[in-house]
Specification:
By secondary structure, the chain is of the alpha+beta class. Among the domains are: about 170 residues, no CATH class; about 140 residues. The protein is built from ten helices and nine strands. Strands 2-3-4-1-5-8-7-6-9 form a nine-stranded mixed beta sheet. The termini are far apart.
Length: about 450
């Protein structure tokens, strides 16, 4: 391949590989952090004889600062660098063991790894290397704890009765994984130290594959416990939700027996109270049930990634976990769906009841308008009668004035027949007064 290099100019390796004419690009502020998200929280490299212990600790209101300070105490004891403030994960070798700390939304995991061969399983765990006082003071509440050990597959097959001694005599669960490259053993029980145990008998897994397998098993244990966090809440809510369902059915039945506006208002008040309580329950449980749904999907995903092969006479992980986990999850899902259904039914009942109230109010308004119209007609008739009487009264007083005036003129000798003048003044006075009142009423009505 021909190289186009200017004579006398010597290039370095970096200059031949990197283009020099790329313009200065404007990258997004979070580009590097988002890009490197693929490489955060890597799986460990685990060889034969590795012993892993993990504690999953619920935050329970504990802020990240308390965890940083607690880990810093351990770092000071072993003279290693502490985690950076604000970091969400920390991996450090403490000499005799390795600490892998990861902070998630609801919980943090403390994973301890050390290597010890030629010892019986679970006799010397990774937690035995930690200061007991430091372990007891871990901020938060432990929701999950698990020991995982990787041992060589014996040349001769081992029976469950032999391995049962490492699981305190409990019934075992086992399966082959990865095309029979390793075999898993567990009892899925809490043992005398308060933690569970999983034994991996490795045939042909390299350290990378062993690390990925262990991470799946640890996540499987943590996520299944996080799913079950919603179960006590669902079970405690079930009686109240059933009672509210019955109450709603009774309200719907009473809608058909409504006799007046007071009944409608009473039922509407009951529906409003019921709706407020249901919305409160939905608000209190929505995050927990949504989280359970997400964790349940992760559990199924991790089970699928194991790619188990069944061992005759023993249950596999994929048979044991869903059979017991799924009913609890379905209970949570049923309560969540029941609450949503109740909310929709209350909305429909409230809408129906409001429609009845509106129709009742409309009918009452029509009756009121009819009554007002009748009163208006009566007032108009009274007004017309009063106007007639007013014309008569004003005309009477006006004729009286004309009579006094005619009498005075007669005494002065200016007119000879005052009675005639008074008689002619009567129709003229009535006409003038009626016209004046009529014009005044017309003017007021126009305004």
């Amino acid at each position: 391949m021909t190289e186009f290099i200017t004579p006398g100019y010597k290039t370095t390796h970096a200059e031949t590989l990197a283009p020099r004419d790329i313009p200065r690009l404007q990258f997004h502020d979070d580009r590097e952090r988002l890009f490197n998200e693929l490489h955060t929280r890597p799986f460990p490299m685990l060889e034969q004889g590795s012993r892993i212990s993990q504690l999953a600790v619920l935050h329970m209101g504990v802020d990240a600062g308390a965890e940083y300070r607690h880990i810093q105490t351990l770092c000071e004891r072993y003279s290693v660098l502490p985690p950076l403030v604000g970091s969400s994960c920390y991996y450090q070798n403490f000499g005799s063991f390795e600490l892998r700390w990861e902070r998630h939304t609801e919980f943090s995991t403390y994973t301890f790894v050390h290597r010890l061969e030629n010892h019986a399983p679970f006799q010397h765990t990774a937690l035995s290397l930690l200061p007991s006082a430091w372990l007891a003071d871990i901020p938060g509440k432990v929701i999950s704890g698990l020991h995982v050990e990787i041992a060589d597959m014996p040349k001769e097959s081992v029976s469950p009765d032999i391995l049962r001694q490492y699981f305190e005599g409990h019934r075992l669960i086992s399966s082959w994984i990865g095309e029979r490259r390793a075999r898993l053993w567990t009892a899925y029980r809490i043992h005398n130290d308060g933690l569970g145990r999983i034994l991996i008998l490795n045939c042909d897994l390299n350290p990378c594959q062993s690390g990925r397998l262990v991470r799946r098993l640890l996540e499987l244990e943590t996520y299944r416990m996080m799913v079950l966090l919603a179960f006590p809440m669902a079970r405690s809510m079930a009686p109240e939700v059933s009672a509210m369902d019955q109450q709603l059915a009774e309200i719907n039945q009473q809608i058909n027996d409504i006799r007046g506006l007071e009944d409608e208002r009473r039922l509407l008040g009951q529906l409003s109270t019921l709706a407020a309580r249901i919305e409160q329950l939905i608000s209190d449980s929505n995050f927990r049930f949504s989280a359970a749904r997400a964790y349940y999907d992760l559990v199924l995903s991790r089970l699928e990634e194991l790619r188990e092969q069944e061992v005759s006479g023993l249950q596999t992980f994929n048979e044991f976990l869903p059979r017991r986990l799924t009913p609890a999850y379905r209970t949570c899902e049923a309560i969540s769906d029941h609450l949503d259904d109740l909310s929709k039914r209350i909305d429909r009942a409230s809408e129906l009841l409001r429609t009845r109230v509106d129709l009742t109010l409309e009918a009452q308004n029509q009756d009121l308008l009819k009554s007002m119209n009748q009163r208006s007609k009566t007032q108009l008739q009274l007004q017309q009668a009063v106007e007639g009487l007013s014309v008569v009264a004003i005309s009477y007083y006006l004729v009286g004035l004309v009579k006094y005036l005619a009498g005075s003129l007669s005494d002065l000798g200016l007119i000879g027949h005052p009675e005639l003048v008074v008689g002619l003044a009567v129709p003229v006075s009535v006409l003038l007064v009626w016209r004046g009142v009529h014009r005044m009423r017309k003017s007021l009505m126009g305004e």
